[in-house]
Structures are given as C-alpha cells and as structure tokens.
Amino acid sequence: MKPVRPILDMNAYDGKTSFAQTKEGDDLLSRRTRNFGAASVLFYRDPIEMVSGSGCWMTAADGTSYLDFYNNVPSVGHCHPRVVTAMSEQAAKLNINSRYLHQTTEEYLDRLKATFPNYLENIVLTCSGSEANDLALRIAQRATGASGFIVTESAYHGNTAAVTDISPSALKRGQLPDHVIAIPAPSKLTYGDNIAAGFADEVNKAALVLQDRGYGVAALIADSIFSSDGVFSNPRGFLRLAVAVVHRAGGLFIADEVQPGFARTGDAFWGFARHDLVPDIVSMGKPMGNGFPMAGIAVRPELLSAFCDDVGYFNTFAASPVASATGLAVLNVIRDENLQANAALCGKSLREGLLHLADIDGRITDVRGAGLFIGVDLAPDGDPANPSGQLVSDIINAMRQNRVLIGAAGKYGQTLKIRPPLCLKSSEVDFFIEALAKSLRTCR
C-alpha cells in the first residue's frame, strides 16, 4: 500500500537536525526551529529566506528571484500597490473593532454580497479560513440538529479542533472521529465516466452510516475544486447531484471557497458557481485580503439567526476598517484589472503547455483544473494507478533550482498543485513551462 502523505509534509524541510540540538547555532534556520519547536513548517529541503515580492515574483535574501506558482494568498499579486495603499491609509486614520459604524465596512460588504446569490444575504467576517469553517460547522449543527459531516479523503479545511476533525490530510496518525466520514475524491480513476453519479452515491452511503451511528447529517463540506485531493474540477455541474443527496438527508452544503474563490477558476467568480450549486453556507479566506488576515462566511439569514439565538458571534479584529479597506481594494483590483478573464486566458495557455509536455513525457499522466488552478499528476512508469509522491517531491525541488515555486497535493502527494497569482502574464506562463520541462529532464 502506498504511503498517504499529510498535507504539511508534501513540500517541507525535513528538520533532520534535532530541535534540542539547535541551541548552539544562531543562524536563521536554527533560530526558527528553536523558536517554533515541533510546530515549525518550512518549504523545501533547503529553506529559503524571502525578503520581498512583487506581482508573481518573490526575491530571496541572496538576490535570487522566484516565480511564485504556489501561493494563492497574494491572489492579485504580491504587494499590490493599490492594496498596500488602501491598507496603510486606513491604518493611519482609524483601526478599531466592528462595534462601530463605518462607511467602508458597509461598502465592502455590499460589494462582496453582490458576487453571491441573493439568498446568501448575511456576511460574517473572521480572520482566518479555519475560523470561517469552524463557524460554518457550528451553524450547520444548530440548523440541522445533527453532528455528522461528510468530507473527501484528502480534504483540508483548517486547524481549529473542530475543523481538524474534518481535515483528513492534516492527520499524521490515528483516524477520523466517528462523526466524520471521508469519501474518495471525484476522480475519473475512482468513478469512471459517470463522476456525478458515483460521487453522489458515496455521499449517500456516508449519510446512511452517519444516521446509523446516531449522528445524523449536518453537512457535506467541500471546496469545489478539491484542491488538497489533487484538483478535480470537471465535468462542470457534477456536484449538483451530491448536493441534492445531502439535502435530502437533512444536511446542508458548505462550499469552502478559501482556495477556489475570488475569480481563480476563470469562468466563475466562485468555484461553486461553475457547478451551478446552491450552497447554504460559503466560507472564504486566504485571497480575500491578498495577504492581510481576512476570511468569512456568506450564509442564509435564517441559519445565522437561529445560531445567534443561542450563542451569537463576535470577532475583535474582523470587519475592522483596515480589513474592510483592504478587502475592498482586492475586489476593485480584480474588477479593474480584469483578473477573472486573465485567469481564464492564461489558464488556457498554461494547460495547453502542460498537455504538450505530457505528449513528450509520459510520466505526466493527467492535467486537470480550471483557470489558474491546475493539478498535474505524475507517475514514474506512466501508469496513473501507480502515483509517486517521491517524483513530485523531486520535481518540486528541481523547479526551485529553476526559480519556480510550486506545491503538491493528492492522497499520495502525486499531484503538482499550480495556482499562481491572478495577474500572471503570458511570458511567465512560458517561463514556467520551460522550467518544468528542464526539471522533468533532470529528474530521470
């Protein structure tokens, strides 16, 4: 049986030096491991000290510039001047909690709501996607009276206690709790040509098990591009049947848009919109503030009202004037720079380049995705049933030598996860394809 790879181990510095043995050194890596201890997570076998960023590029302390194809946090580009200006100007005027009226906050929320279906009338802002998903779970439990959740096998939804329970890819040992059932990701390898029916059938089986166990079904939670599972975006609309199944079982559908949201898929602003879905709750995160800690949920008012009758919700730092100004600037940049259309255009060019490489190198067994969110499967012998996390790890580190940063995904770490900033240029697509071609030649 192939080893399952926890998400944080897929592209990490292995920390061979014992944390207890780092005190004698005072270099930056030693200080990091000493200060963070066992919770330290760093990318690459040889970690990089980064000092600046602009657009799709980051610059290391040694002067090397890297094309960032990993990070969906600075979605409109590293240190975008309009976002930085909005953030700094508001911070120089006023920054306070959300218990005071502020014009910018309401302008931002109105603009954000305009991107959602009308029935998702309420927005609750948080500081992280983990907080947003944690709140979504609690609202679902209150609304349904159930406590069971359905996720996919390599899902990642955050790191609070409740959200870690529904994040199989975060587990290094042990099993999911009884109130959580993980089902296979919607891959053709698993379900054949009828992905919609096969995936919905697994959701139905999971719902029956949760009911038998006495938990009932609170929700199916999924990010609509299944990023941690290895990026499964198509066929468009395949998720509708699964959502109908969970609704019939009495549960809600929570669309986790922390990764596929904010125009990344190109042909829709939200990932769930590609599937013409009707989510009950939508969670948002990372790209919302382009690096500023912003997240939140969009939710049906009746669901939020019932929850607030019991406990309510308040977040000291979310919905502050600075957060609102930052989030509004991100929406303005996406609109004014036409970044959704750019994601579609550059994503098409990127997939064409990857498919050309697949024709040349049989170790590329599949290319999937939408817009600027793409997964590329690798197998040493060209057999998709024989995935290789080791090959992906080797390619990732070779790409680093060719000045490109990229991540991994999938149950076995067999998928290159591609998600550059939305401001990607055609010349940068070419740079990436050339770097990948060089890396494939190196890793024979």
Describe the protein's architecture and organization:
The protein contains 14 helices and 15 strands. The protein has 444 residues and is an alpha/beta fold. Helix 12 (339-360) packs parallel to helix 14 (426-442). The protein is globular and about 60 Å long. The protein is 38% helix and 15% strand. A seven-stranded mixed β-sheet has the order 4-10-9-8-7-5-6, sandwiched between helices. A four-stranded mixed β-sheet has the order 1-2-3-13. This is Aspartate aminotransferase family protein. Belongs to the class-III pyridoxal-phosphate-dependent aminotransferase family. Keywords: Aminotransferase, Pyridoxal phosphate, Transferase.
Strand content: 5-15%
Number of helices: 14
Task: Write down the overall mean pLDDT.
Answer: 93
Element string (H = helix, E = strand): HEEEHHEHEHEHHEHEHEEHHHEEHEEEH
**Low-confidence runs (pLDDT<50, min 5 residues)?**
17-25
Shape assignment: globular
Give the SSE layout.
Blueprint: H1 28-36, E1 50-54, E2 57-60, E3 65-68, H2 81-93, H3 103-113, E4 122-126, H4 129-144, E5 149-152, H5 161-165, E6 180-183, H6 188-191, H7 195-212, E7 219-222, H8 239-248, E8 252-256, H9 271-274, E9 281-284, E10 295-299, H10 301-310, H11 321-336, H12 339-360, E11 364-370, E12 373-378, H13 389-401, E13 404-405, E14 407-409, E15 415-418, H14 426-442
Parallel strand pairs: 3-13, 5-6, 5-7, 7-8, 8-9
Antiparallel strand pairs: 1-2, 2-3, 4-10, 9-10, 11-12, 12-15, 14-15
Helix pairs in contact: 2-11, 3-11, 4-10, 7-8, 12-14, 13-14
